[in-house]
Amino acid sequence: MRRWLADAETVLANHSDRLNAINIFPVADGDTGTNLYHTVCAASAAAAEAPGNDVGTLLAAAGQAAMEDAWGNSGTLFAVFLDAFAASLAGHQRLSAPLLARALHRAQIRAWSALSEPVGGTMLSVLEAAADGAASVSGRAAHEDSNVALAAALDAVVEAALGAVVATETQLGVLTKARVVDAGGVGLLLVLAALRTAVLGEGIPEDTLETLHGFRVQDPHIHGDQPETQGVEIMCTITLSPLDAADLRRRLDEVGDSVIMSPVGAFDDVAGACRWRVHVHVTDPDSTLELIRTVGEPERLALTELRSDAPGSDGQPAEHFVEDTGRGRTA
Questions:
Q1: In whole angstroms, how far apart are CA 152 and each of 2, 81, 102, 200?
Q2: How far apart are alpha carbons 163 and 159 in whole angstroms?
Q3: Is residue 152 a contact partner of residue 141, using CB atoms and an 8 Å limit?
Q4: Are 47 and 1 a contacting pair, CB within 8 Å?
Q5: Are 87 and 106 in contact (CB under 8 A)?
Q6: How far apart, in whole angstroms, are the C-alpha atoms of residue 211 and residue 163?
Q7: If pLDDT is split at 50, 70 and 90, which confidence band does 324 have?
Q8: What integer pLDDT is reported at residue 26 of this predicted model?
Q9: 6 within 8 A of 41, measured Cβ to Cβ
Q10: How far apart (Å, rounded) are the C-alpha atoms in residues 134 and 130?
Q11: Residue 214: is it exposed, middle or buried by C-beta count within 10 angstroms (0-12/13-18/19+)?
């Protein structure tokens, strides 16, 4: 599992520019590759330092680190995926085909529910296909806990995810018009392929990736031809009761879009609350921050300008402000 996340970090570093180039949904700000890379880096670093041999415990530490340090829409969804994936593996020291199927199914449910308005033709569709691929193999093998069964499940996961990525081009009108596949979907495919690489030593050939529309090195940066993007992305962590979290989600839906809310860590029975990671795109960040502060004090607050000249077009990052009110750090 440590090698998986390290491999994912490497493959995203190698392909982040191409992911940025085809990033046009939900906003054409050209930073999906950058956001996924930085989020996976946080997960990989936490996994490398996590003690013990419990797969679920190790990945839970990685998932929580990813959630706290997630960058962007795609990074947040990856963090939700990893946190949910870990929950199904608690108490186990080895990954098996049935556990893989269970973990992907749980991650699929969590990812879809984390978004206020989930949309197909995205990372969500790729994750759903991967979960179905694992389930199609799990239980069929005579020895379902064997290495052979795990290899078959991983092959099915990557094959299904690849097919789902290709299909994204026809599932979203904006992708169909631009003739590209979804950047977040490709990013998740690379992460899932890194798991197969870590276990079996087999990834996705570069010539296969280059068949994805818009993903060849010589292809132009598609996001640069899209209408200008405006607004601000707000991300923070906040401690709320489930009722207050539901109310905040409703209110954020009214003032913004791309709303994602997911719990971070365990629920505190004594306090009757837990930490939540919040993500939203808005045009009026000041009033939105006032709204958030009516229910609690945000920590690890990040404001990022959404614009089409983000990393990938000229190599310059969009304005990114982080304020950690819980630890007194600003960057």
A1: 21, 22, 15, 10
A2: 6
A3: yes
A4: yes
A5: yes
A6: 12
A7: very low
A8: 86
A9: no
A10: 6
A11: buried
Helix (H/G/I), strand (E/B), else coil: 45: helix
Question: To which H or E segment does residue 1 belong?
Answer: none
Q: How far apart are CA 19 and CA 31, in angstroms?
A: 8
Q: Which two tokens stand for residue 276?
A: 């939540």
Output the CA torsion sign for 66, 71, 74, 77. positive
- Residue 145 CB-half CA count within 13 A: 3
Q: Is pLDDT above 70 for 178?
A: yes
Locate all alpha helices (DSSP H) within the chain, ordered by sequence. Answer: 2-21, 32-49, 55-68, 72-87, 97-114, 123-137, 147-171, 173-178, 183-200, 206-209, 242-255, 285-293
Task: Give the mean model confidence (pLDDT) for residues 36-53.
Answer: 96
- Split at pLDDT 50, 70, 90, the class of 27 is confident
Coil/strand/helix, residue 27: coil
Which residue has better confidence, 267 or 211? 211
Mean pLDDT along residues 93-117? 95
Nearest to 320 by CA among 9, 31, 54, 5: 31
- Rounded Cα gap, residues 304 and 214, in angstroms: 26
Structure tokens belonging to residue 140 = 């069929």
Residue 200 has pLDDT above 50, yes or no: yes
Report the distance separating Cα 115 and Cα 268, nearest Å: 23
Which band of pLDDT confidence, cut at 50, 70 and 90, is reported for residue 219?
A: confident
Residue 308: pLDDT band by 50, 70, 90 thresholds? Answer: low
Beta bridge pairs of residue 276: 238, 263
